[in-house]
Structures are given as C-alpha cells and as structure tokens.
C-alpha cells in the first residue's frame, strides 16, 4: 500500500492517509499546512524524506494504522491476533489449503529429505526434481506445453516481461494491473502503454496508435485484486489479435476460484488456446509461495534463459515447492472446494447488497465494500477488528482518491455462521455511522 514509487496522475502520493475530508480532530493533531513532497528533488541527504514521512506514526498513535498487523496463528477461516480469535476475512487463502494436513505434511517431508534451501539460482545449482515435477503438474493443469516456476509470483511477472519486451517493443497494460507488472516494465527495455481499466475503446485506441511493424504484448490481470472484477477477456483477445499483439494474463486471483475445477479466467471464458501466456502465484489458493508462467515450450524456454528474476534469484525452497504440488493435487481431487468458495462469495455479496452496501461488480471471492472517506474507512476497519472481524482497509494510491474501501475475501472454509456474524456487524456499523 505504501507504493511511493508509482506515480498516480503524475502527482506524488505523499497524501497517503490524510485527505481534505479528514476530521477536524485529526487535523488538530497533525498540521497539513506546509506538507512537503516526500520525493522532492534536491535533497542533500537521501534519508530526508524519511523524516518528512509522518502519516504512519500519526495513525499508530490514533490506533488507526491498518498495515503490518501481526497474526499469531492462521487457522484458515479463523486467525489468532493478539491472543484473540477473529474471523479472517482479509486473506487470499481462498480454498483454505494452508492448514490442510496433506499440504503441511508434504512441506515437512520435503524439509526432512531435501533441506530448507537450495542456496542458488535455477540457472546454476538451484533446479531440483521437485521444481520439475511441479512444473509438469502445472503445465498439465492448464493444458499447456511447458511451465517455469519462480520464487515468487511477483518475480514471475518480472521474468516474463524482462525477457520478452525489448527495445522498440511495447507492453500494453490495464491501468489497474498489479504493481509487479508496472515494475517489470521498468526492467524491460521496451515502452509501457496503458489503457483505462477494462475500457475496450481505450485499448483499441492505444493499440491503433502503435507502429504496426513493432512487437507488442497486452498484459492484464485475470481478476483485479482490489475490487474482484474480471478482465473483459473475450473482447481483449479480439482487439489484441486485430493489431497483432500477444496476450498474457496474470491470473493470480483467478486460479482456484473461477473456471472449471478452478483453472482460472482463460478457461472460464473458453479462451485458453487464444491466450499466449498465463502467469500466477502459489501464495493464494495453492497455499505456498512462488510463481509460475505457462505457455508454449519455446517461449517458456526463452524466458528460462533471459528472465532476470529467475537467473539472479535463489530458487524456490523444497518445502514450498512440495506444498504447492500437494495443494494442486487437492484442488483437482476436491473440486467441491471451488464450489464452496463461490457459494460463500455469492452469499456474502448478495446479503451485503441487500443491506445497502456498494460491492461493485465483483464475480469472485474478493468482495469490496466501498466507503469513500479515508478516515471512516480506517475507523470501520478498527471497529470491525475490535469486534472480531479482520478485513483490509484499502486507501489511495491502492485505489483512486475518494474511493477507499474495505476489502473482504471469503474462503471455502467459512461457515454460514461466520458470514452471518460478519453481516450482523456490518449492519450495526452502518447504522452507527449513518454510512
């Protein structure tokens, strides 16, 4: 959320928390007059900006700091925080597999047999048979020729883009794409272009403006992580092909929750054979850490040799690879988990809507509750936590100004009793704050 390196509307995101609508109480405690741009040029000391950054300290003092919260123990739908049970409605553990005995046992066995680390990059001494087995499993799951595993999902996007987008080539992205895609564009030597979120006319405008003789790739999130909406993949595929652009989908939040047996957005739309590459992560439904890309054997092999994040990073540790493989096996053996998470998401979204909350156009387990005012968002987050429900407070620049929201996300393991308790508390806070 402290994405200070990213420019939004060409203005520095220094006003991360305190916006003009902030209450007089907080304005009295922190003067907004003379607020300095954290990233103003000309500092003699590179640490000067650190002294000017006061918002986090202020919110800590007020008990409204929503980030880096400590979780003592993860029990899937329930978490222990500060010794207290809370309904966990703020994780990406969509199928609850982080606590599955088979996943935990696979990781333990891998540690006992292979140790905790391979202490080297995939290129030199860090490729293990577990990596190759996992890659074969993922490629088969998506119906693709080949797969390459990375140490994180973030690194998967860095590797793909740094390898494929070179000088005089273009990467075209949805403005709401994940930060890893923006950062990857800096590693690539090509030029970054963006189109308005899910705006097909703007996508066509951008593609039509590019030199027809230059290579280009369109890259979109399959599921957008803050609001849970789907990319308009059928239209994006059609427009991209019209202009000769390759297509990559980052389906980090789609795998395991949408499409047949949770195979993600490309299968959901019946377009798996029309999309060139799919990237993703193990840190959500697959209950581990790491990332992947799947596609044709030749393209994956090229990324394997030119993707900087796979060449210059230590490889995925054996227990992480084993855990991801076990989770993938459970996903395929127990597709009813996908049905349960969808049912839970529909139940929570429908009942929040009936209570008068704006939940947007989500079609996934990510259910945003739009608030708007930043201070109210933070107060609601704190009150919910005190009452035993953990959600995520999402503020600018994670979302546009004045569109702050509470991000909720359900799992297959939440019970109706869990969700009814959440709905009861949301209803009470709505009345209390005339929200």
**Spatial strand sequence of the major β-sheet:** 4-10-9-8-7-5-6
The shape is globular
Largest sheet: 7 strands, mixed
Helix content: 25-40%
CATH architecture assignment of the largest domain: 3-Layer(aba) Sandwich
Secondary-structure-based class equals alpha/beta
Order of helices and strands: HHHEEEHHEHEHEHEHEHEEHHHHEHEEEH
What does this structure look like?
The strands form three sheets. Strands 4-10-9-8-7-5-6 form a seven-stranded mixed sheet, with helices on both faces. The chain contains 16 helices and 14 strands. It is an alpha/beta fold and 435 residues long. It is globular, with a radius of gyration of 22 Å. The protein is 40% helix and 15% strand. It has helices at residues 24-29, 48-52, 55-62, 101-114, 129-142, 153-164, 179-187, 200-209, 233-242, 265-268, 297-306, 308-311, 318-333, 336-354, 374-386, 416-433; strands at 73-75, 78-81, 84-88, 146-150, 170-174, 191-195, 216-221, 246-250, 277-281, 291-295, 366-372, 389-390, 392-394, 404-409. The chain has two domains: 73-88 and 335-433, Aspartate Aminotransferase, domain 1 (Alpha-Beta Complex); 100-333, 3-Layer(aba) Sandwich (Aspartate Aminotransferase, domain 2), CATH 3.40.640.
Jot down its keywords.
435 residues, alpha/beta, Aspartate Aminotransferase, domain 1, Aspartate Aminotransferase, domain 2, seven-stranded mixed beta sheet, four-stranded mixed beta sheet, 16 helices, 14 strands, 40% helix, globular, disordered N terminus
What's the short version?
This protein is an alpha/beta fold and 435 residues long. It has helices at 24-29, 48-52, 55-62, 101-114, 129-142, 153-164, 179-187, 200-209, 233-242, 265-268, 297-306, 308-311, 318-333, 336-354, 374-386, 416-433, and strands at 73-75, 78-81, 84-88, 146-150, 170-174, 191-195, 216-221, 246-250, 277-281, 291-295, 366-372, 389-390, 392-394, 404-409.
